[in-house]
Write a structure and sequence with these properties.
alpha/beta, Metallo-beta-lactamase, Chain A, 7-stranded mixed sheet, 6 helices, 18% helix
Length: 295
């Protein structure tokens, strides 16, 4: 049993195609979670275009039913939607999840106004249905999805996805370093965990996989305070506190080459080992598919 996770876009802020980013990829945020009967999509960055091409290669006869969750409506998380092939087919149903007012639905349509895009949202052939969380929980096919708030300019949401006793957490665009309970602790002792409040740790508790924003190094972050993203080592410490099994560092900085991401992953892995944690750390890379299962 179990389910699959596939990375379609792992870059932050702006698409960065080119030789420096070929291995990890240059598309912005988009992730697919799939069971035998349900397809969930997290964020609609430019990676969504490639996901759409993949979905249309062998569409079911009854049409596609998709569940779209947006962490927030900054451009790098919605700009792929106008190029999402399934949205142009009348046999597709797309459930778009948000608050009761569902600002996500409204902003998806807003970016397709004539000033920005030649095809209007109302002209899409798919059935696009706004759906709201109730008490931050929703049933999407055979998955249970729990929403939680994160610290980011304008706000953002993280999601805990549960299926048959397994859990994946998607937590991008979260400035964890502004929430530390003892910011000076690690400077006194490098092996001291950067502690985060229990309310921040709780949604990640015992997750099989945490996909988390880790855009900055320790050296870069002081010049980017307030930009809404975390240091990779802080994400490692969060994963350790939560008892996470695997950590995928994502939302790679547009200025970071493949070599830069490799170096961040190495530093993060060494930090986990130095603390004595059994945590597998890797960099999210476009095209990678993972099976989430317990032995």
């Amino acid at each position: 049993m179990g389910f699959f996770v596939r990375f379609w876009g792992v870059r932050g802020s702006i698409p960065t195609p080119g030789p420096r980013t070929r291995r990890y990829g240059g598309n912005t945020s988009c992730y697919e979670l799939r069971s035998d009967t349900t397809v969930l999509i997290f964020d609609a960055g430019t990676g969504l275009r490639e996901l759409g091409i993949s979905l249309l290669r062998n569409p079911p006869r009854a049409g596609l039913e998709l569940h779209l969750f947006l962490s927030h409506p900054h451009w790098d998380h919605i700009q792929g939607f106008p190029f999402f092939g399934p949205a142009y087919l009348p046999t597709t149903t797309i459930h778009v999840y948000g608050s009761e007012k569902n600002e996500n639905y409204q902003l998806l349509s807003g970016q397709m106004s004539n000033a920005y895009f030649p095809v209007a949202f109302k002209d899409l052939s798919a059935r696009i249905v706004p759906r709201a969380f109730k008490n931050d929980v929703v049933q999407a096919g055979d998955f249970v999805v729990r929403r939680f708030d994160q610290k980011h300019p304008g706000g953002s949401a993280g999601f805990r996805v549960e299926h048959e006793g397994r859990a994946v957490v998607y937590a991008t665009d979260s400035e964890l370093d502004q929430l530390l309970t003892d910011p000076e602790g690690p400077s006194r002792n490098p092996r001291t965990l950067r502690r985060l409040p229990a309310a921040v740790v709780a949604p990640m508790k015992n997750a099989d996989l945490l996909i988390a924003d880790a855009q900055y190094t320790d050296e870069e972050y002081p010049k980017r305070i307030g930009w809404g993203h975390a240091r990779s080592n802080t994400v490692v410490d969060l994963a350790i506190q939560a008892g996470v099994r695997q950590l995928a560092l994502t939302h790679h900085d547009p200025m970071h080459s493949d070599r830069d991401v490799d170096a961040m992953v190495l530093t993060a892995s060494e930090r986990a080992r130095s603390i004595g944690a059994e945590l597998e750390v890797f960099g999210a890379r476009e095209g990678v598919t993972l099976r989430v299962d317990r032995e």
